[in-house]
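We both want to read discrete structure tokens more fluently, so let's practise on a single case. Would you supply a protein for us yourself, any chain you care to pick? Would you write everything just below, so we can both look at the same thing?
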Amino acid sequence: MKKKELSILKQNVDSYVRDLNTSINAAVNKFFAQMTAITDADLKGEANILPCTVTFEELVNIVEELYNKEKPFTTNLTNKINRVSLIRQITYHIGSNMGHSYNYMYTSLNNMYGGKVVKNHSTIDHSVNKINDLMFINDPKCMTLRNQIINAVAKYVDKQEHEGNV
């Protein structure tokens, strides 16, 4: 091919690539707009997951048992590793969605662990807001950990009901 023909071919390919990118962007934007509407509806529907089925102390114990290597509330209180802090944040979020107040969670944790876990209520508030943001974008790590904890709580409640402790 001659130089001029190659130049025209390159321009055509570039034009096709731009058109393709525009189409893909339009499709992705439409998809995210639809998913946002669905996710918003789902989040509103889950506002009170498992309402007060367990105390916050029981929830913390369930999480400690579920993640016995990480020990997010006992051994690794000051650990800033993303997974450990994310587990704590999800626990606060679930506790909040169960209807436990920030004051109750704050007091419970500090009574359980001698005032070493949470310095003030803003820690819990920040955690709940962060998890709301991560759930809004369907963060896979957050969603997986959250589902694991919810399933563990459901198993705990079923076990308690089966044993007649409820």
Summary: The radius of gyration is 24 Å. The first helix runs from residue 3 to 45. The chain has two domains: 1-45, 48-163. DSSP finds six helices and no strands in the chain.
